[in-house]
Amino acid sequence: MEDAEVFTYAVIGGGIAGVTCAEHLYILDPEARTVVITASGLIKAVTNVLPITKTLDMFDVEERLPEQLENECPNITVVKEPVTRLNAGDQIIYTTSGRKFSYKKLCICSGGTPKLISNNHPSVLGIRDTESAQQFQERLGKAQRILIVGNGGIATEMVYEVTGVDIIWAVKDKHTSATFIDPGAAEFFKPELGKDKIESNQPLKRRKYTVDGSQTQYGHIGGALGPDWHSGLRLSSDLKRKVTIEYQVEVKNIFSHEELINSGKSCCKLKEEPLDSIWPVYVELSNNKIYGCDFIVSATGVVPNISVFQDGNNLRLGSDGGLRINESMETSLSNVYAAGDVCSPSWEPAQHWFQMRLWTQARHMGSYAAKCMYSSLANEEIYMDFAFELFSHATKFFGYKVIILGLFNGQKLEGKYEILLRFTPGLEYIKCVMADGKMQGAILIGETDLEETFENLILNQMDLSQYGEDLLNPDIDIEDYFD
Ligand SMILES: Cc1cc2nc3c(=O)[nH]c(=O)nc-3n(C[C@H](O)[C@H](O)[C@H](O)COP(=O)(O)OP(=O)(O)OC[C@H]3O[C@@H](n4cnc5c(N)ncnc54)[C@H](O)[C@@H]3O)c2cc1C
Ligand SMILES: NC(=O)C1=CN([C@@H]2O[C@H](COP(=O)(O)OP(=O)(O)OC[C@H]3O[C@@H](n4cnc5c(N)ncnc54)[C@H](OP(=O)(O)O)[C@@H]3O)[C@@H](O)[C@H]2O)C=CC1
């Protein structure tokens, strides 16, 4: 074997998936040496875990210095360098400085990169890590109007958090936030966009470190930001929300002012905007409207970071470009596992589970991958983790607690489902997706306290047909009823 540094386990990536995987390898196999190789100067750690249901935890995500992981788990060595190549045949990892690492078991947790509407346009910005969030903040400080493309997590949080500038929100769908919620919930949230922001006095729970130049020299491959990413930004002191939504559109063209003039097309003016205003960039939407703005935020999903692993390796990829993994988290390469945003599960999933690239799944996958790696070396049998029985996600949108469970938007049901709804404006929105009298999924907005009961009802598939619409009758305490 080449003159490589020898480890039992190697983990590539210092995000939630990689750090969770390394921590669990330490618990399972404390004598074995593990190397974590990460391109980011800071690593992520999950803290203050508070279980709220069997599959759902609330937790904080901290950015930490790698030394802290080494102190807590003495078998772990953290190497702060990007991986440049993997020789899966000889089980060797190469990094930028020419170092080589051999492993018996490797887990790739290299996350994703923003999938942008244009990769080389200077006015198009994506948000992924601390560095890109800082760039966003700098540009926002000088902006009067931005255009946000995308209808998922980042766009939904951004239109609520960013005030004091005009926002044009261009969404593909008939309703907003379609990745996470249904049209009814979007209506529930709509009034919030017309309200001014209330300044929060809550202190930040997440510890922040400054990443110095040497740590960012490797470019745009830091760990993904998390739940409170916007609270670290210094946003405007003007707390007015000014959001214009364009539905069912995509971006058709991006112009400079000169190109706009030459095209002979004219652009839309917002109320009180001078007719002769000139913008750094113009965006033509598929409904033919053209808006001028300072810059464009492309919040249009992620692409898995796989390119450095492909050279010389016969990697099988999923349809979304992620590393295909089987039910033991193994990729198509021998002794190579993957977890988190970089992977695409290819096993037949449980009826109520599917992949979404989220913290919770990165954490579950990281810990399960560690179990799979260890039990393969120890020749022990392993069963699929319970976390993959039910899709569940807890977050906050527009200031409300949001819990989504199972087939919350009727996914996989091919339209053969009914909806039960309880809806009190400004207070709560409860939707159950029912098929054959059994609960398949739910969206819970507000302090409903129903997550545990509904999780049980989805998992145990109890026949609820006799209760009909009473299932959501506010006069019946269903929590007590089904406990
Ligand atoms: C702005 C934003 C807000 C979000 N908010 C939420 C939220 O509220 N709730 C939620 O559930 N999810 C949220 N997410 C998604 C969540 O952050 C990700 O799903 C999760 O962090 C993925 O973790 P990961 O470990 O798989 O990848 P990452 O966190 O992306 O980590 C990948 C790691 O791999 C390293 N790496 C990459 N390439 C190489 C290489 N060649 N060599 C060495 N190291 C490499 C990187 O440096 C990094 O350390 C958010 C994401 C963003 C961008
Ligand atoms: N609170 C939370 O849970 C948060 C989670 N996140 C996570 O962070 C990651 C990145 O967030 P984000 O970028 O918002 O990704 P998401 O996957 O959440 O959303 C991407 C959105 O962009 C749309 N889209 C994709 N391509 C285009 C296009 N060319 N033109 C217009 N729209 C397009 C998608 O539509 P379609 O689906 O139809 O392709 C989808 O609505 C995701 O994994 C997300 O889950 C981020 C912030 C908050």
List the helices and strands and how they pair.
Elements: E1 5-6, E2 9-12, H1 16-28, E3 34-37, E4 43-51, E5 57-64, H2 66-72, E6 76-79, E7 83-87, E8 92-95, E9 100-102, E10 105-108, E11 112-114, E12 124-125, H3 130-141, E13 145-149, H4 153-161, E14 166-170, H5 183-193, H6 213-216, E15 242-246, E16 251-255, H7 257-263, E17 281-285, E18 290-293, E19 295-298, E20 302-304, H8 307-310, E21 323-325, E22 336-338, E23 343-345, H9 359-377, E24 392-397, E25 400-406, E26 418-424, E27 428-435, E28 438-445, H10 451-460, H11 478-482
Parallel strand pairs: 1-9, 2-3, 2-10, 3-6, 10-22, 12-19, 13-14, 13-19, 14-15, 21-23
Antiparallel strand pairs: 4-5, 7-8, 8-9, 11-20, 16-17, 17-18, 24-25, 25-28, 26-27, 27-28
Helix pairs in contact: 1-9
The structure holds flavin-adenine dinucleotide and NADPH dihydro-nicotinamide-adenine-dinucleotide phosphate.
